[in-house]
Amino acid sequence: MGSFSDFWYYFENQLSTVRIVDIIDIIIVAVIFYYSFKFIRERRAGKLASGVLLILAILLLSEVIGLNTLNFLLSNFFQVGLIALIIVFQPELRSALEKIGSGSFARMNKKFDPSTNNDLQKCITEVCIAAESFSQNKTGALIVFERHTKLGDVIKTGTLIDAAPSYFLIGNIFFDKAPLHDGAVIIRDSRVYAAGCFLPLSTNTDLVKTLGTRHRAGLGMSENSDAIVVIVSEENGIISVAVDGVMKRGFSRKSLEEFLTKSFTENGTVENIKSKTRMFINIGNEKNEK
User: Which of 196, 237, 240, 274 would you call most buried, defined as having the most Cβ atoms within 10 angstroms of its Cβ?
Assistant: First the structure.
């Protein structure tokens, strides 16, 4: 009983020294660790991080039980490990910094409201009409909605258009004999800003092999920015959406319009969007796609 009293007395003393600033400090660190873990877990970096933690555990174990040679090698490895980690995690670090810059981690990013933005609503409607037509005709398409992360580097790879969106314009761009049909269309400020753009391919090694270049490019664009990417399969006409590194498939015109509209409203936070776009791929019904 005395030991418990001593422990409680010690606990009260320690608790009395805690200041408000210490509590704030702990909360901030906990939030940083939480979002870092969540960000890494949902990407290829999760496996790399597991490997680093395993090596760190081996280093500590070798020091405890006296494996001097192994401890020497691992200690020297970790001395230059920071530079190696920066190189290995470069895509993930870039993506994280872009998201911090766009405010997605803090959820302070301002969302468009289609109820007061007729241009945006009209743009979404025209894109959905075009996607439905492409789906019926099995015409491949790749349409990127730019949000907070600017896509200037991607736009430079294509041809500037800067035109009001319309079903006929988008249909002409992706006509299979048109010179720009193999690239992506970039939607900026509710306008068809550029076409024939080349997107970065996804580095996710866990993707099923049946997904082709168009889908990997759309997914890669969503991994490297906060853009929303609409993809129409040339093989089977399936409409897909990629956002924040995940993809959902099997949209109709109506469900696509509802999803895009909600994604640009104040309630369409990044977390809500991600919860609706967990990878959903019917492997049994897939064919090799372009």
Answer: 240
Distance CA 200, CA 223 (A): 9
Q: Indicate the pTM of the whole model.
A: 0.62
* CB-based contact 99:226 (threshold 8 Å): yes
Contacts for 31 with CB less than 8 Å, ≥ 6 apart = none
What are the structural domain ranges in the chain? 2-102, 114-285
For the stretch 208-238, pLDDT in tens is 777 888 999 999 898 888 899 999 999 889 9
Q: Which residues on neighbouring strands pair with residue 232, listed in sequence order?
A: 141, 239
Residue 140 CA to residue 237 CA, distance in Å, equals 8
- Right CATH number for 114-285 from 3.40.50.2300, 3.40.50.720, 3.40.1700.10, 3.30.360.10? 3.40.1700.10
Best CA proximity match to 198, nearest among 177, 184, 215: 184
